[in-house]
Design goal:
heterodimer, A: about 90 residues, mainly beta, 2 domains, about 5% helix, B: alpha+beta, about 30% helix
Chain lengths: ~90, ~325
């Protein structure tokens, strides 16, 4: 973060992101066969995408301008230009 | 015949990639998914021999053994960034070697990419986009990029209502720990001050719009969705949006394709403001999000991306 005195004017426009919806899963892993992510809910039950109305919830995290699709609060963007994470 | 694998580079929690992979598998394609910034080196191995005619190149992921000489296409989605600016000097060295070694191999495979990471990186720059958009024939709002306060004030005086948006969308943690961002917003010129000096700022004449268009281009396919929202920047509140699939306005598809061709992209998500006189180019997101658009409207973007990856793209 820049020192206060060097803070660009653009930062006067900061506004809070809407609160993230709580994660609907407890863990996630890659299914070796399908190469798709498997989301595991409370109690260890896999959540089938679309079958519990939760697919949309994961999609929510991929709307443009959202905080990225992980739970990591680190700035998702501009670590370097070839590795960007925004829309 | 061994048709080779489609290599999908993305993070684990990428449900849009899941959708594309589902279509690829359903069409009988072989898929290897890998997150280079996360899986390597702990659970992945890379080895490449460059020696005359013989080339032996492989990548072992936690669940696949990939012959890199036979990759059919690469789908570059949202891999975890290679972060080489953290840790000790020695860690930074290792991470840089990963970026330039592993990342270098993954960016130089003799196959097609949707889209190539270096093309994506270039296309993320708004000044370049504005130039290419004008060449492609789009209507582009008068735009000023400056760190000169007087120029910003003069621009506002010339154009009346102006907006500010960052050159790169940003998420900042404020002093209370809350995640913040900067939406596109109108600027009252009296609010401008000398802090404009500390970075280039992008100001643009405000487009008097009746709606927005979100246009997703996959290869030659175009998915045009009209977005109605009472907000200047619709991303601010998705619950206030209504979506309608519409035919692209006349000439738009050709301009989008010309824009993407210039930037060597096979995919792009364009944002337009729909004015009385037609669509006005706001920006192109070269690796933009589309999963929620498919959910909301039923347009089959994921299937089109799978088709594109299975074509013999070069």
């Amino acid at each position: 973060m820049l020192e206060d005195r060097n803070r660009p004017w653009g930062l006067t426009r900061l506004s809070p992101l809407p609160a993230a919806s709580p994660a609907f899963y407890e863990s996630v892993h890659l299914d070796p066969r399908s190469q798709r992510a498997v989301y595991v809910g409370p109690g260890g039950q896999p959540i089938e995408a679309g079958k519990h109305g939760t697919n949309k919830e994961t999609k929510k995290k991929e709307k443009t301008g959202s905080r990225g699709d992980g739970k990591d609060p680190a700035p998702p963007d501009e670590v370097e230009v070839t590795d960007y994470d925004n829309d | 015949m061994d048709e080779g694998v489609i290599l999908v580079l993305t993070r684990l929690e990428d449900s849009s990639a899941d959708m594309v992979i589902g279509h690829l598998m359903a069409r009988g394609a072989k898929v290897a998914r890998f997150d280079p910034g996360e899986d390597f080196p702990e659970t992945a191995t890379l080895s490449c021999v460059f020696a005359g005619q013989s080339s032996r190149e492989y990548l072992i992921t936690p669940s696949r053994h990939v012959d890199l000489t036979k990759v059919r296409a690469v789908y570059y989605r949202r891999p975890t960034p290679y972060r080489y600016d953290v840790g000790s000097q020695f860690e930074q060295f290792a991470r840089k070697e990963i970026k330039f070694g592993l990342g270098g191999v993954l960016a130089s495979l003799p196959c097609g990419y949707v889209s190539h990471p270096w093309a994506l990186a270039r296309a993320e720059h708004k000044p370049l986009q504005l130039r290419v958009a004008q060449q492609a024939g789009f209507t582009v709002p008068a735009t000023l990029i400056t760190n000169c306060l007087d120029d910003a004030r003069a621009f506002a005086a010339t154009h009346g209502s102006i907006i500010y948006k960052p050159l790169r969308s940003a998420v900042v943690v404020d002093s209370t720990g809350a995640l913040c961002t900067i939406w596109t917003s109108t600027v009252d010129p009296t609010e401008l001050d000398e802090r404009v000096r500390f970075a280039p700022h992008l100001f643009q004449a405000r487009v008097d719009k009746k709606a927005d268009l979100r246009v997703t281009v996959v290869g030659d396919g175009i998915f045009c969705v009209r977005i109605e929202s009472d907000l200047l920047d619709w991303r601010q509140d998705y619950s206030r949006i209504s979506y309608t699939v519409v035919a692209p306005p006349s000439g738009l598809a050709e301009k989008c394709l010309a824009f993407l061709e210039t930037l060597e992209l096979r995919f792009g998500v364009f944002d337009f403001a729909l004015s009385q006189d037609g669509p006005v180019f706001l920006e192109c997101n070269p690796n933009g999000q589309w999963g929620w658009i498919e959910d909301e409207t039923g347009v089959s973007i994921s299937s089109a991306i799978a088709d594109l990856l299975l074509e013999n793209i070069k």
